[in-house]
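The data are quoted verbatim for reference:
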Amino acid sequence: MLSKLLIKNYALIDALDIEFDKKLNIITGETGAGKSIIMGALGLILGNRAESKHFFDESSKCVIEGHFEVTSYDLKELFNSLDLDYEDVTIIRRELHADGKSRAFVNDTPVTLQTLKLLGERLIDIHSQHASLQINTESFQLLVLDTVAQQQSLLNEYKENYQAYKKAIASLKALEEEISKSRAEYDFNQFIYNELEQANPQPDEQAALESEQNQLENAEEIKKYFHGAASLMQSDEQNVLDGLKSVLSFVQTGTKYLPSAESIQVRLHSTLIELKDIAAELEQVADGVSMDEERLTIVSDRLSLLYSLQKKHRVDSNEGLLNLLEDLSHKLQDSDSQEERIEVLKAEIDKLHASLAIQANKITENRISVKQHIEQEVQAVLAKVGMPNAQLQIELKKKAEFKSSGQDEVAFLFSANKGQTLQAIHKVASGGELSRVMLAIKSLVAKSSSLPTIIFDEIDTGISGEVALRVGEIMHQLSEHMQVISITHLPQIASQGNAHFKVYKEDGGEKTKSNIVLLKKEERIMEIAQMLSGANPEATAIKHAEEMLK
């Protein structure tokens, strides 16, 4: 429950420190006194987005802090899922700065607004006069059924399966579209693949063929120059080898007289042997080259094919052709395997469909099982608040298609008077009737949900007198199960509280500011008397107020 609310530097509030009772808390005050400001501040720590003009003093930051006693509400698992430190008294703090920056903390751990919302949904239900419009929505009507049926765990499992089911269907659709598109490309890819596979390009083939082509095309020139070199070395009248032999002969003779020159003689001898080998190899090279027109044609044709394929597919080497061949192979394999993937997806969808059908049936059964209980409980509460002939009928229709909430369509039908045809509730209920119906429903839901706190923000529109007293009694009974905070203009409701706070404005210095005070017994009598008869209540009004408080 909300045990304490601290507000600093917010709108017309300089600083407030409110400690709430664990049962029924009443907040009263004149219109414009600041009750809505307190609700706005509370909304900020529950994850609402900040608006402009929040500051009583723009030179300081705005701070709102709520202390929540959560020991009895099984929230440890939620805290773990949100990666938060659990504390029996959890402190939620929101800080706003004049430059527009905002920070939020749970037990001093920085959190996002989404985390605040998730946590806030488990701590407080705020019901305002405008919230009565929720009753017209299917999501709210299903929430009422599911909360009373206490099947949130089953619904969570169903929703997980439903998301997986929708995802699998989307994947199947995307795959089928991909197959349809790839089928148009399949024949073309297969043709190119066959062409390249038949050509069978090799990684180093092109360079070797180009070298061989160059040799075959210039065979005569090669023979000419290598034979000429060999002739100069050993066949001409003045060839290199004969000249070198003469040089060696001279050196050998001279060495007899100059032994120190023997190393030159050895080197010349080695050189002569090496040159003889070179001359022989020149002859072999020249003799080994032949003009093979047939081979040249084969090589040239092969290179022409490779050049043509490279140009056609916009690559500059055989490696590019090989990469294209590999890529096409993968595409063709993917096309072949897509049919298998479709079958796997269809089997998964069938399995999820069967599981959803079982879960949806159970969800429907649970809703049907509590339908009559809700109708009876709501009608019993409505009878207590001045609507003895009111009827609520819940219609459930099961549809073939799955939705995130199951397979049910729901409609809350209502009539306020005898003989009146049951119709959709928003069509036949007045504002006051709608408020009472929502009070009855919220009371029932609150008992089933174990929510720590519920706030009724001026839901007394359109009611007065005895009906208002009964509404107050309902709130008082509800506070036996949970903390209730009621902002009201009606003395009949105000008299039912365990704690009564008054919001008021005061003019001090240069600024008007809102304040709140917990009323003592005599102050409370006077406040209710003023609510009964005006600013200066007479003795009868004061006596009436005393009687109401008894």
Remarks:
- The two ends are 26 Å apart (CA to CA).
- The chain has a mean pLDDT of 85.
- Residues 1-123+451-519 form a domain with the Rossmann fold fold (CATH 3.40.50.300).
- The longest helix spans residues 318-384.
